[in-house]
Amino acid sequence: MVKSETFEITKEQDEEQGVARFTVIGRVNSKTSPALKNELEDALNSGEVNIVLNMFQVEYLSSDGIRIILKIYKEAEQAGGKLRIEKPSEMVRSVLGMVALNGMLI
Amino acid sequence: MRNVVVKASVDNLDDVLGFVNGYLELHNCQPYLRFQIDTAVEEIFMNIANYAYKPAEGYVTIRISAEEKILIRFEDSGKPYNPLEQASPDLDKPVMARKIGGLGVFMVRQLMDEVAYTRADNKNVLTMTKKIENYVL
Q: Which stretches of chain A drop beneath a pLDDT of 70?
C-alpha cells in the first residue's frame, strides 16, 4: 500500500476471479503516477498478470497516468494476462473517452 | 490578470494548480470546468518542467484572467519548443498497436477552446482559452 496526501493505492488478491485488484484513490497525476507504476510493475514481476484497477474513487487522471496504465496493459497482455479498469469514476470515464480508450480498458 | 512565477519543477505542480484553482473558485467556476482547465494546466506545466530547461533549471510564469473567457498563459525562457507541432495520437488503432505517450497535448486541445503558441523575446509563450459556461459573476 502506498499512501500520500492526495493519493492512495491498496492491493488485494481476488482468489475467486484470479486477479490482483488495486484500489486507487485520489489524484493520478505526474507526481503520484510513479507510485502506481511501481505497484503495478511489482505485481507483473511476481507473475500477477491479471490486474484489475478499481478507479471508483479517482478524482483526477492525467495523461501521465494514462501512459502508465497503457504501458502496464501492454506488458500484461504480452505476459498472457489482462489489465482492466472496473467502476471508473465519472472523471476517469470522461478522460479515457477523450483518448478513445473507454471501450478497451473498461 | 494575475500571475505567478515558479521554478519549472514537478515539485511546484501543486502550487500551480492551487493558484489556478484558487482563481477559478473565486470566479465561481463550475467544478467540471475547473477539472478540464486543471487537466490542461497540469499537462502544459509538466511539459515545461520536464523539457524546457533540462538539464538546467529555470522559471515559468503563469498568467490567468477571466473576462469574456478564461485565459491562461505560460511563459518560459527555455529551449524553443512548440508543443502544438506534436503529431496527434493514433486513436483509431487498438491499444496494443498504440504508442503509450503523446496524449497530453492532444488532451489539452480537446479540453480547451483555443491553444496557441508563439516564440517572442526568446520565450515560449503558450496561451489557452476556454469559454465560460454556466458562469456566475
A: none
From the list B14, B91, B96, the residue facing A100 with the nearest CB is B91
B51 inside 8 A of chain A by CB: no
Instruction: Specify whether the CB–CB gap between B62 and B4 falls below 8 A.
Output: yes
Report the residue from B46, B89, B95 with minimal CB separation from A73: B95
User: Model pTM?
Assistant: 0.89
Could you tell me the CA-to-CA distances from B63 to A18, A35, B67, B128, B133 in Å, in that order?
50, 31, 13, 11, 21
ipTM for the predicted complex comes to 0.84
In whole numbers, what is the pLDDT of chain B averaged over residues?
92
Is the pLDDT higher at B90 or at B82?
B82
Tell me the residue ranges of DSSP E strands in chain A. Answer: 2-3, 7-14, 19-28, 50-61, 82-86
pLDDT at B137: 46
Tally the residues of chain A.
Answer: 106
Give the best residue of A29, A75, A77 to mutate against chain B (max B CB count within 10 A): A29
- CATH number of A62's domain: 3.30.750.24
- Alpha helix (H) residue ranges in B48-137: 104-111
Q: Which three cell numbers stand for residue B29?
A: 467556476
Domain around A31? 2-105
Please state, as a whole number, how many other Cβ atoms lie within 10 Å of the Cβ of residue B87: 9
Query: Residue B124 in 3-state DSSP?
Result: strand
Total tally of structural domains belonging to chain A? 1
